[in-house]
Amino acid sequence: MAKLLEQAPVLLVKDLEASVAYWRESLGFKARLYGEPPGFAILKRDACFLMLSLAPDDHEIVPHWKIVDKMWNAYFWVDDAKALYEEFVAKDAKIDYTLCEQPYNVLEFGIQDLDGHDIAFGQDLE
Known about the structure:
Distance between the termini: 28 Å
Number of helices: 2
CATH topology: 2,3-Dihydroxybiphenyl 1,2-Dioxygenase, domain 1
Strand order of the largest sheet: 1-4-3-2
Radius of gyration: 15 Å
CATH class: Alpha Beta
CATH superfamily: 2,3-Dihydroxybiphenyl 1,2-Dioxygenase, domain 1
Shape: globular
Number of domains: 1
CATH architecture: Roll
Helix content: 10-25%
C-alpha cells in the first residue's frame, strides 16, 4: 500500500519576503524562494514543511479563525511543546495563545503569522 510521506500546508501572504523573514528569524524555519521576483516559498523545519504563496494585491486574506472560531490554518505536532514555546517566546514570535493543556489531552500553544493566520503546535500527552 502506498504511504504518505510528508505534508505542506499552503498559506497566502501579502508580503512574501517579510513573511519568510518572520518564519526564519522567529520560528527557526529554513526557506527556499522561487520566482523572480519571488512569489512562492517552501519552508522547512525538521521534517515539517509549510509553503507560502504571494497573494494578488487585491486579494483579502481571511484567516480561518475569522470564519470558524478558534480554527487554525495549520497545525504541527511536536515532541516538546514547552521547549518550542520557550524558544518562540525568546525569539519574539507573535504568540496567539499561551502553552496550555487542552481537554483533548494535548499540550499546545498557538502563534500568528504576519497575515493573521493561526498556527498551532501540539504535543500528544497520551
